[in-house]
Structures are given as C-alpha cells and as structure tokens.
Amino acid sequence: MLKSIITSETKIKLLLRFFLNPKTKGYLRQLSNEFNESSNGIRVELNKLSEAKILISEFEGRNKVYTANTKHPLFNELRNIVLKSTGIDKVISNIIQKVGIVEKAFIRGDYAVGNDSGLIELVIVGSKLNFNEIERVRKKTEKLIERKISILLLTSEEYQPLKINFSKEPFFTLVEKKENK
Q: Which strands form 171-176's sheet, in the order they lie side by side?
C-alpha cells in the first residue's frame, strides 16, 4: 500500500522502522546493514526526513542516532498510515477488542523494531480469554491484512515470571490497563 504512495523503498523502510515503534532508534551503519542497502542512499533519505523534522537526531558517542519526532504535527497521522499499511490497526480492532478481558497486549519481534517481515508476533495477557474466538478472528484478520499473526496468550500469573525476559527485547505496547492504587 505504501509503495503506491511513496516511491522510495528506502523511505518506506525508514518510516516503518521509526513509526511502527516510535521508541526505536537507529544510526546510519546499523540501518544500512539491516536494510542491506548502501549507506549513501539511506543517508539521503534520513536527511530528507530530518529536514522535514519527521525524524530527529542526536549524537550518542560517535554515532548520529535517529528517532521519530513524536512532537511533529503529522506524527499521529504518519503513525496511523504506517499502522494501517501493516495491518496493526486491524489486529487491535479485530483481535484485542474482542477476545476477553485484556490487561496488556504488545507486539514483539520484527514489527517491534520496524521490520515488515510478514509475521506479527502478538502477546496478549488477560483473563477469560476466548480461545475459539481468538483463533477465528486471527484467521479472518490474517486474510484481511495478508500477514501471518502469531499469538501468545498468557494469564497474569503466567506473564509475571516472563515479564523480565520480554522487557529485554524490543516491543511496543498496544493495550495496557492501569492498575488502581
């Protein structure tokens, strides 16, 4: 979908990388290796996105590190376009909102670092989760977004000992219920 609007493959990869998970950071060499593209082509697109203030940069040691500019007036619109182009919006509306009592839901794996690999890894923590409904909606959503969805369902008790492991890898939160204190 984005390919018909944005003609630069590199720019699409950069938008996916930084707007699927706005906490994601990246520097030129890393992005060049990840995308298997020349650093010059990536530098050109990073400069264009930086000039438009869509990306911001800062130095960490010797590396110039880029992140999405969450204060940009078009940030939410750009993020929504990226989420819709990858089908994440459908995952949220079709699966998470219809499966039971969801305490936390997050994406991990490739999509958490901004790679549209075709496999969305979704973790749902909750109670009274309807497994049959989840499977039915997962299959329907996969056809709709033309991507595979892997779902890990956990109760709060099952999630607690795994929480530290999940926090060590990239993820972005879709739903998180705040605890009353």
A: 148-154, 119-127, 101-108, 171-176
Per-residue pLDDT tens digits for 91-127 = 777 777 778 888 999 999 988 888 888 899 999 999 9
- Residue range of the domain that includes 116: 87-176
- 92 and 164 inside one domain: yes
Q: Are residues 121 and 166 in the same domain?
A: yes
Provide the strand spans (E) within the chain. 26-27, 55-60, 63-68, 101-108, 119-127, 148-154, 171-176
Look at residue 2 and tell me whether its pLDDT is greater than 70: no
Which amino acid, 178? K
Cα(80)–Cα(75) distance, rounded to whole angstroms? 9
pTM for the predicted model, two decimal places: 0.71
